[in-house]
């Protein structure tokens, strides 16, 4: 009789194991299809860029597209030429660029250096933005589905919102770093797991390593995440004191291990960022310049299916900073989710933390429909604190945007049966208008044979630079910067679009360009305003000498090209036509 019972139990166990295996297999298939779907959708969003990634430029922010081409070209030189990872001597000659003080995305750019080397930086940009959107969506889906919610559909909603919501699509117009948020969900989960006994060392070390990885992707997003998790911890402790007393010791110890691990590994890179040459303090704009408009909460972003760029631009600082824009029904559903989940202390703390960061994103005073009301807000009290003063204020709204996705996932997972129908109708009405349109692109100026055939090498000796006119600068020298970076910085160039001190050593405020010089100011004025000034030839030649110019190249089709040429002719004489461009070789003084 006992033998028969044992056989029956073994058979039941085999059936249970078989059923469990079938369920696991089905869920793996679901996960695979969700991942494929996210990649396919991200590719659709970037479809216009993928047609010609090295020839086209993202139209929403072609300047930032250019700066990330620079980051990728620098990483290519690190891998293939042994260049220093934290410093570039190929831009802003002769001073160079502190790459740790810029968003150098080394954790992404270095592994993809072979792609940049063999296929071009434009391909790598398209790959990173596509992978960033899809990867962020799937990372949130994975963490939510494995650890936080029971419903795969609810996890999919959270992942899709966090990966393809208005905030992320907006930053996909040029911010490679801000769409690559796939490490953040795992940082969040590892912080939450520190509450568990026995995870002080292992959990702390894992968290510390994830922090190090995120630093080399995007420090600003890490700062936002740290602020949010700190707020959630404080709010949770205040609202659930008995539970907090049970976990605070090993939680704090785990945070200490994470801080020690990341601190040791990041000591030199962070020292280089904040104290090595090329460091800077603060941003080249006031906090009031880039803030979140309150009215944007219930409006549509310019890339949303229901969006209208002409209207949206009045509520947003740029095409890459539509950090809210949840839509009217979307905003209602977020509020509904908060109300539904309010009794849960952890989720209430999460919602309050998101609300706090949202208020911070409004800046020092309330702005609504583009009008500064003068009503003061808390950010004015902390706007000049070091590190905070390096943040673009409106980007604090990226936190409530992600929090909204998490809360919507929990609400979808916990919605009571009697209210499911109306809830899902609301979700459809909220999400469909937010479906993103493919990102717009423009055709970049083609590189001339002078560059593609390597003719430039005859004119740029070792230690010399190739100077394009207009000079590589933010907003005015996109083509010169793009040409240099698509050549993987094979030739060094002066100036460029990057972050550095405005006028060292007198002014170390952050600037988007190199310090002004006579020749750079003169050429900028001629290009912008189209008039011929009196040229101080000696000062102009002195600047060319400072930049170690080997050859000057006039970019065809530039704004006020004829007047720019007149200035160069006055200083350097008549040009030579070589490889599709007009050039002025600079005789060596040596």
TrEMBL record:
GO terms for molecular function: transferase activity. Coiled coil: none annotated. The chain crosses the membrane at residues 33-51, 66-87, 99-119, 125-144, 199-217, 223-239, 251-271, 325-342, 349-370, 390-410, 422-439. Keywords: Membrane, Transferase, Transmembrane, Transmembrane helix. It comes from the Bacteria. The keyword Membrane applies. The keyword Lyase does not apply. This is Glycosyl transferase. It comes from Actinoplanes couchii. The lineage of its organism: Bacteria, Bacillati, Actinomycetota, Actinomycetes, Micromonosporales.
